[in-house]
Amino acid sequence: MLRWRRPTASRIAPLRREHAEDCAAIHATGFAHPWSALEFGKLIADFATVGAVALDPATSKVRGFVLSRRAADEAEILTIAVSPSCRGYGVGRDLLRVHLQQAALSGARVMFLEVDAANASALALYARHGFAKVGERPGYYRRPGAAPATALVMRRELK
Percent of the chain beyond pLDDT 70? Predict the structure, then answer.
């Protein structure tokens, strides 16, 4: 994607098992310990998970995804990732907005997530969507060749 030209808006659709390979490839670009396509396939198929995928409207290529697990009236974002070529264009924002609506419609009243305390762009995204810090988990994220990172626990009410 050329940086000087804003891409067309993504088509947000339900996350399906056929997206598992693309999710694994995108996840590997943003996480030190990425999940495999097999792991994504199992999570997507689980009745307790709900997910959304951002697709290029012309090619149906996966631009990003979000995956949550629901228990009773609570949900937790397990992961959200955007393809490097699509970062900075609002794909994550659009995914998160739609996903929060999906979670609320499925009966969730509150959403939780964990995020690396040093991930400024993710923290800004979550703050814009009404998440607030409710706790910390020191040493939660393992990082190759570096000290473990602190995870911030964040929460947002759903309407």
Answer: 96
